[in-house]
Amino acid sequence: MAEGLDGVVATATRLSDVDGEAGRLTIAGYAVEDLAPYASFEEVAYLLLQGRLPEPSEHVRFMQDLAGRRALSRAALAVVHEAAAAKVPPMDALRMAVPILSLGREENPVDDAMTAIASFPTIVGTYWRVLNGRGPVPVRSDLPHAAHYLHQLFGAEPSADRARALETYLNTVCDHGLNASTFAARVIVSTRSDVISGVTGAVGALKGPLHGGAPGPVLDMLKDIKSADRAEAWVRNELKVGRRIMGFGHRVYKVRDPRAAVLSKAADELSSAALENRQLYDLARSVEQTALKVLDEVKPGRNLRTNVEFFTALVLQALGLEPKSFVATFACGRIAGWCAHVIEQHAEDHLIRPQSDYVGPRGLKLKGGSA
Amino acid sequence: MAEGLDGVVATATRLSDVDGEAGRLTIAGYAVEDLAPYASFEEVAYLLLQGRLPEPSEHVRFMQDLAGRRALSRAALAVVHEAAAAKVPPMDALRMAVPILSLGREENPVDDAMTAIASFPTIVGTYWRVLNGRGPVPVRSDLPHAAHYLHQLFGAEPSADRARALETYLNTVCDHGLNASTFAARVIVSTRSDVISGVTGAVGALKGPLHGGAPGPVLDMLKDIKSADRAEAWVRNELKVGRRIMGFGHRVYKVRDPRAAVLSKAADELSSAALENRQLYDLARSVEQTALKVLDEVKPGRNLRTNVEFFTALVLQALGLEPKSFVATFACGRIAGWCAHVIEQHAEDHLIRPQSDYVGPRGLKLKGGSA
Q1: Beta bridge partners of A26
Q2: ipTM for the predicted complex
Q3: A211, A277, B40, B55: which could form a disulfide with A318 (CB 3.0–4.6 Å)?
Q4: Dist CA B197 CA B98 (whole Å)
Q5: CATH for B16-211+322-348, among 3.30.70.20, 3.40.50.1000, 1.10.580.10, 2.60.40.770?
């Protein structure tokens, strides 16, 4: 039995390649560090869905198409309000609202994908504002995707620097091989089910803490350490009592996660605007160096390197997002990859259906004539 | 690469065993033909969730527990009404309402499973009545599960024979190894996500036509054939023009699907009550014999045998259900298996995360400074 299907190749893909030994992430042909900080989110989504970057006019039409799909239906809005009123976690709100995105529309893979990509920021933004006692802001069609998400959250047009930082983040996490949520989406649509069903399943999978993408604890760690000179003792003590150091180590990457470099640079640039963020960033870089040194010493050969969560926490925190919204924000980027994988799987048109080993009893009989 | 993970063993399970060569289905120790026609649905659900049949007092408490969870929240009811008003397919209505089942409740695996099992018939019944212009009927806590589903659909208490026939059907389809929807649920909760997320994903997977569980076309075939003497020419012609004969052949079973025998008997018993159903059943048995003979002759060695859909169609039709509700009715039985698999997967606490082969381009560079 292949526990957890470790090492089993389940499908071929043209969407992304994770080379854990070399620390390389390729997104539809481009190294993540060459693409994420420079492309718009719309360009990256187009690249994933169409297999190439758009020409300028295609880029504009794609932006307009997405922008026209941002408003939620009355039924979806009502569910988001109910979810916020009941204070369900953000990922539950997303899981409740996303399956309603097909209401009143004909099923169509590319159409469904565009609607899902456009709607995620509206769902999360509306939920977040209502949860915090503020009214939702109307959608705007004159902002690019990343800027629109910040507008949905904060009710104000973001500066170019802030929009760029979020865009770089969303691009960085847009796809990552056959992770558990992407695989769940592909399994679902391998029955020829629709895009919204696949994406709904992916949201449910991403919700689980083993998926990763939970960078909140990195901030708790930095707040607890407080200053660089306390880092070494803090890290040594955590390891001594058997706890993991948040933001280090990855199931696949045995060297530094290439996304960490992209997001470190984005956090660095963004942190210049506020002294508090600059101090946190400098502390983080110092803690990173210390943690790597101590981890190599205490856990030799384990190759625990900085992962994507470490600098995600810094970027999103500097943007003013609260840790509770981090995973839902991750979903606003990963939705592009989910949709592209689902459409790729549709073309396979082959059920994903492994076997199980039965280890239970056999030959039991009911007592008497009935159970 | 293992296309579709064919033949790959992904997990161990104590829930069910499909022996395709011998034509045997074991449900937590019991042969399906020894269990499904005799046990209550509640006993089978208990068996799957707890690993053994309940003692009499446990059976009663389990029935009461389920019966107390049948009512939908205001938010879930509103979504079911919206879905019916927009005339979305039944499986879409289920996918929209199920994720809302967690609203206002603390997350708890067994609790969530009980609520999901209890709520599926209410969701499908309410949707079906509103879709057809009738008001929903209030839930009742004084009916067993199968009888309550018929009450939700038809607004009247069913006869013991009708309730037994549906109960036998729900028991027969309660679990079936690692089918695509069950596997989707396990992948989702392998991240430690919750039961409702897993079950929501399973509904999305079951929706797809490759999943099976679409017995409607069997009735179309029988209506088209009309009388036994026309069967042979009809079947030969279908095969000649390259079409499949509905209700025959299965990915796993190379002999007669053991569930076909259970449901054939249930359909036979139920059909005694109405001449029209009796005639359809007799026609079906005759068509079955003819089709098996012709299939063996025209497709030698393919071992296309009667599958579960063939007699599912007859049971559900004799109960007065419309083909459009067949897959959602299937879900009202399979939900027990989904929940049990999800809870079994939670105990594994191991991510299901296979690999993909990257077959796209590499080393592409953006033109100029930006994309």
Answers
A1: A17, A31
A2: 0.96
A3: A277
A4: 9
A5: 1.10.580.10
